């Protein structure tokens, strides 16, 4: 059964820069040897995340790249995917886009903004995953 995990931003560090949470999730996935897709909202967000993954922790190394720029997409552990690029399926997906990820995967992670006004679409997405039979989990970050 696929699983959906919702990460609610609570810590000031993540509230100020939500992509830091994405970096942390990507690092955890990499440490666990889970090949991961990060679905960026747009090309600018993909670039920002690419830069941040190099610098978010001084001692962290998260092997990553933006999909479609190199022939190594299949072997790169963390693949950042802008909307206009197709990418190979992966067991873990970090979804930053506005729509639920319903393609095949073992687990999808959704980042929930700290702003309560921005949470309504994610509440609807929770219900959508639940209706699809996903095992649901919530984490306060």
Q: Which properties best describe this structure?
A:
alpha/beta, seven-stranded parallel sheet, 4 helices, 7 strands
Walk me through the structure:
The protein has about 140 residues and is an alpha/beta fold. It contains four helices and seven strands. A seven-stranded parallel sheet has the order 3-4-2-5-6-1-7, with helices on both faces. The longest helix is centred in the N-terminal third of the chain and has 13 residues. The two termini are about 25 Å apart. The model has no long low-confidence stretch (mean pLDDT about 95).
Radius of gyration: 14 Å
Uncertain spans: none
End-to-end Cα distance, whole Å, is 25 Å
The strand order across the widest sheet is 3-4-2-5-6-1-7
Largest sheet: 7 strands, parallel
Number of beta-strand segments: 7
Residue share in helices? 25-40%
- What's the rounded overall pLDDT mean? 94
Based on the structure, what is the oligomeric state of the protein chains?
single chain
The DSSP helix count reads: 4
Can you write the helix and strand succession as a string?
EHHEHEEEEHE
- Strand composition percent: 15-25%
Judged by helices, strands and strand pairing, the structural class is alpha/beta
Bulk shape: globular
In short:
The protein has 141 residues and is of the alpha/beta class. It has helices at residues 12-16, 19-31, 43-55, 120-131, and strands at residues 3-8, 36-39, 64-66, 78-81, 92-95, 107-112, 135-140. It is globular.
Layout of secondary structure:
Elements: E1 3-8, H1 12-16, H2 19-31, E2 36-39, H3 43-55, E3 64-66, E4 78-81, E5 92-95, E6 107-112, H4 120-131, E7 135-140
Parallel strand pairs: 1-6, 1-7, 2-4, 2-5, 3-4, 5-6
Helix pairs in contact: 2-3
